[in-house]
């Protein structure tokens, strides 16, 4: 998937481009080790750990990472994965067109009202821009109440809790139709 852009009249223009694991590692290191990124589970990572993790994603045919920009400035990380091969293998029955997703908003000292919701909306639009995507699958930590509310705001419906090796997660799904109903154009 190439670079995409989306205008948010209240915030600016979001652009999503493929992540460069070498060039973007230092930036990502600051994000994933920040206290607000505790649910990303990389708090103790060194720079080389971050670079290695994103090199592995770049080498995978089932997992991709993207950098989200707002008016040209990096502001979020997005991962897209095939849940039949990554993250959720054996934990649910994948359907054709299922796409897994993670996103992380960069820490900021000056929060903007509605910003994170605008980010997840841009992420979902990016994923659904691919006609092969029928449903987005997420598995956030059950304790991450803030992301559950954001997921619900864009149309996700929780199905059940699942136990992953690293966390107890809330398996949730959002079809294209659910997203379009929750976030009208």
TrEMBL record:
InterPro entries: Acyl_CoA_acyltransferase, Acyltransferase_MbtK/IucB-like. Residues 17-64 form the Acyltransferase MbtK/IucB-like conserved domain. One of its GO terms (biological process) is siderophore biosynthetic process. Pathway: Siderophore biosynthesis; mycobactin biosynthesis. GO terms for molecular function: N-acyltransferase activity. Acyltransferase required for the direct transfer of medium- to long-chain fatty acyl moieties from a carrier protein (MbtL) on to the epsilon-amino group of lysine residue in the mycobactin core. This is Lysine N-acyltransferase MbtK.
